[in-house]
Amino acid sequence: ATDLVTNTIVNAVGLAFPAGGFGVVGPGTIIANHGFELQTFDIEATMATSRGCTEIIGSVGVRRLESSQDFRIAQLMAGALATAAVHKHDVEGWGPTLSIDASRPFGDSGLGLYANLRGSVVFADRNQTAANFGAGGAFLASASASTDEVISIGEIGLGIEYDRDVMDATGLVVRAGYEAQVYENLGGPTTINGDVGLSGFVLSIGVNR
User: What is the pTM of this model?
Assistant: First the structure.
């Protein structure tokens, strides 16, 4: 696959920037920003079972992945635009997903521990566009490319939960924990290569019937 950032943006911008890298050039200043959006949607069938006090829920289904990244960089000389480059990188596709969720209560208190694992493989379309601009924003060049990719996704989460019946056959579940996700081969703002990792605290509220 053609890496548009390497072949179009970096080479073109390199004509104006020093070989040592991006930074302040004489009276000029480099301005750069990066935007990133990532969404997943799952359609699943689930089955529940139990082993002693541990409840286990397995699921199988289909995942939709949508990722959009953009990178913009500009050089200002004496307050005026000298050169700029823009790169847009989108990935979207469908694929199978599997997950397992286990929870174990602490007696009859309603409190308990939970842990879950999920694996997905998405067959995706990767689309890139890149453009270079000169002094005053004058258009210089642009390029685009599309490739087929396979994106592997791994997720793990663990934490505590509170599960309590609120009415007949209906339970309210509140969870607080920590989750980590890895998206292999998703690419970044300046390259189509590389992985993306996300992690952080999560809070969820659900209803069981």
Answer: 0.81
